[in-house]
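$ run holo --ligand "zinc ion" --emit tokens
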Amino acid sequence: MPEGDTIFRTARNLGRALVGKPVTAFRSTFPWLMRFNDDTPLAGQFVDNVEARGKWLLICFSGGGILASHLLMNGRWHIYRRGERWQLARIHMRIVIANDQYEAIGFRVPIARMHTAQSLERDLQIASPESDLLRAEFDAAAALERLMARGDESIADALLDQSALAGVGNVFKSEICFVNGLNPFRTIASLTRAEAVATIASAQKLLKANVLEDSSDMFVTYRGQQRRTTHASDPGESLWVYGRAGEPCRRCGEAIRRRIQGEDARVTFWCPRCQPMLDGSDVDG
Ligand SMILES: [Zn+2]
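-- output --
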């Protein structure tokens, strides 16, 4: 699943292609989007804004419609110059927004809704700007309370819970736990407030570092050897623990562990020495 920083970059790129320009054509394979477009044609309207909210992407039209899409695992937005050949087959096309320079194509987008500002606020699945780690409006104090309220949940699962903090995906989940020396299987209730504050701060910092103008689509949390571009095919090259099962910890040399965790069976990576359980017990990996 794309992490919040990936959606943020997608929003930035779509914004560059679409914002401030009149839409010349809109098409979709979602019947409800076409019905909306029949009633309120998007062609002729301007795109006012494109923004990320956690893992949702919002495209705001001047007529008041807000197209909210979620990419889940396989959805992608591509931008092409008019007439340029698409890199994915037409059968995967779900949404097209065109202006006289560009076509933005939503491929394999599994979830799309048309909202108004009012209905967007009522859509509880879409994070508020205050809960999005990458937004200026992010409210760390409120996020801390929401996180601490999930006492029974493991730290790793709580970090993935977009209603607590919006933006952390499965890669950053493991990386954030490592950076803070927290065993991902510990419960939220075992965290001191100071640990929880530091965890939120580092989540924000890691995500932000990955949306700098020059950042690629590759996640980077480990910069020790500055080798992030030399082995771009290896997803673990620029990371502390994610994707590095069996390899030596970059801090202590212990073999990195891997385990499926949580109701959604997401993979978790950690160093058993740098991230011990509080009672010294080992997690059965
Ligand atoms: Zn270690």
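-- notes --
The helical segments are 4-18, 31-39, 117-122, 140-148, 155-160, 170-179, 193-209.
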